[in-house]
Amino acid sequence: PRKRILASMSYGLLGTLLLLLPEGRWVQQRQRQLWVRPGETAELSCHTSHASNSVNWYKEKPDGGLYWIYWSSEFSFMKGKYLGKKKSQCNFSLSVSPVQREDSGVYYCSSSDFFPLFGNGTRLIVTSEYPVGHPAAGDIATEVSKKSSKACFFVFFFFCSTAQVQNEV
């Protein structure tokens, strides 16, 4: 009887851990590149497939490592030039203001869950001159594909899903 109880407790613990695995969950940064002039404000976005209380923001170092710069939540505050916001259950942002050339680099957001997931990164380019053919600030070209509307579900945990894809150049 004692072995049977321990075995069922082990299976119960294993089942609970499997529920916590991030399968089907993701973190997305829709902006691949963001071009901003020195002195302006850069706003980076982060979208999670599941409701989250917060996300962490990192900047890539020249050696490829990451260093932590900010924690975005509904209780955000200004930290130097950074301000993060929780815009909805699944949407977060990081504002960098005023940007300087040294702020250029790749920024990553990650979920603050037990199993952190990272976005694909947004390259912030701080320059006073845009390359020929690049849309000017404010005129950034966007491709929007509306395949379905956003839906949020509550199963054992709250998660969000959207088929509306917006890629910003």
UniProtKB/TrEMBL annotation:
It comes from the Eukaryota. One of its GO terms (cellular component) is external side of plasma membrane. Keywords: Immunoglobulin domain, Signal. The keyword Nucleotide-binding does not apply. GO terms for biological process: B cell differentiation; B cell receptor signaling pathway. The keyword Signal applies. Residues 22-127 form the Ig-like domain. SMART domains: IG (SM00409), IGv (SM00406). Residues 1-24 form the signal peptide. This is Ig-like domain-containing protein.
